[in-house]
């Protein structure tokens, strides 16, 4: 039973189908929006938790003041190798050399060769000590450069500053050694 208008008859079901289509479309849009909101919330939660984890790691890694003083003493004593940037991969002690050094000298001496201490790990593990700067004999400029670069990359500003100060100290020491002595 449709509505009659002079020569055209409009079926009653047509208006109902259009409304049903619109309703289904709106239902789908609501599902998409709620799914999108859920995904956005998950992304935000993940980002916040990763940021919090990074901040926790940053607070767990601290400057090893003993190592900084040890490096200053070594540089003052002339035990410094002024090698170039990028040479650290060749001069860095291997894992076997590290293990031998620890076996002979202990973790307290091993710690003196690393500018960073990760307090999340126990004292008697290699994982605790970060940012090496020497080969257990001498301070290497390339090791200090690598430590400063990596510390800047991961935003460990106190370690970056310490490595930078050691580089400056070593440069001054080298300049003093190269300067000619004045004649009396």
What would your notes on this structure say?
- With 184 residues, the protein is mainly alpha-helical.
- It has 2 domains: 14-58; 64-176, no CATH class.
- Helices cover 63% and strands 12% of the residues.
- It contains 7 helices and 7 strands; from the N terminus they run ββαβαβαααβββαα.
- The strands form 3 sheets. The chain has a 3-stranded antiparallel beta sheet. Strands 1-2 form a two-stranded antiparallel sheet.
N- to C-terminal separation? 125 Å
Q: Give the number of domains.
A: 2
Oligomer designation: single chain
Number of helices: 7
Structural class: mainly alpha
Poorly predicted spans: none
Integer average pLDDT:
83
Looking at the structure, what is the overall shape?
elongated
Helix content: 55-70%
What is the succession of H and E elements?
A: EEHEHEHHHEEEHH
Q: Kindly report the spatial arrangement of strands forming the biggest sheet.
A: 3-5-6
As a whole number of angstroms, the C-alpha radius of gyration is 33 Å
Q: Largest beta sheet, briefly?
A: 3 strands, antiparallel
Strand content: 5-15%
- According to DSSP, the number of beta strands is 7
Question: How would you sum up this structure in a few lines?
Answer:
This protein is mostly helical and 184 residues long. It has two domains: 14-58; 64-176, no CATH class. 63% of the residues lie in helices and 12% in strands.
